[in-house]
Model the fold of this input.
Amino acid sequence: MGELPTDKLRTARLLLRAPAEGDLDDLVTAMRDERVRRFLPYTPEPFGTAEAVAWRDVETPGRWAAGGAGFAVADGTDDRLLGGVYLQHVSPRRTDAEIAYWLAPWARGHGYAAEAVTAVTDWALRHGIARLELLAAPDNPGSQRVALAAGYRREGVERGGGSRPDGTRYDMVLWARLATDPPGPTPRLLPDLPGDELSDGVVALHPLGPADTADAYAAQRLPDVYESSVPPLPPTLDQVRESCGTAQSQWLAGAAARLTIRDAPSDRYAGEILLLYTEPVTATGMIGYHLARDWRGRGYATRAVRLLAEWAFEHAGLARLEAGAALDNTGSQAVLERAGFRRVGVQLSRRPGPRGTRIDDVQYELARDR
Done:
């Protein structure tokens, strides 16, 4: 690959260009935003005019001098600064690089990041880059959505792939796009919910997120909930916080859809339901669920299972669902049978139980076309 040209790029709504004098005030405001600082931990603190000038006159030209690229993302109509996209860690020998970006708070929610990253990605691939990587924190689903929209594929998790100025490290999700990949967004195994909700008017299912941490912690600390989980141990608050914070990452990966079960009229938390996409090659998934104590005996679990199964078949394209219940958990068995699942047998010592025991599981199945 040759040296990357210092181009301007235009998209339907954006102009990607060199930083300008008129960007400086907006840059200062953007770099003081809590979300920007959270996911760009090496942003200078405090960030003022001198730092903005350095971004324009030193940092961005330095990216080009090092063989990379640096674009200010501006509104294509009024030229206001909206963000930045960079190519870094360029290896001419390996013809690969890393793409990174940030977006100002006033620019979010309009698809600008995906539009800009797609433009720079396509431009880099045209100019000899064979592989581009994009790293995103597991609790940053917005950045992972950008990766999907720009045609990147999830390859795994880099343990300790991110670092902070204090020396601590954190995991990063690795996405990559090759010059040989087809154009357009990356297809998803598990789509979003229509309208971000499933509801029958009595029960509503919403994607699990960080705001659910307190409710999820209280429910998952109940002995009859955690003893039927794997492992059968009470979780810590930090574990539940991480689980809620990364639930959307797992959804975007196509691995699992985790949802809260809520009372539809009041929007109160009632429990959780999970779809694990256990076997994409055969379009098979597994369902699990639990309810907080005050919401049991009202038919909420049955309604939730029906709603999730319908979505799995009609929107996610699954062909069959599996579920299990302990031999002595007749309540859960009744839920599955009322939801249309068929009992197919018992698996001996299927999963770990409390205090080193093993639990037999009654197995249930539900098929889309049966």
Remarks:
- Residues 61 and 323 are 57 Å apart (CA to CA).
- Residues 9-178 form a domain with the Aminopeptidase fold (CATH 3.40.630.30).
- The chain has two domains: 9-178, 194-367.
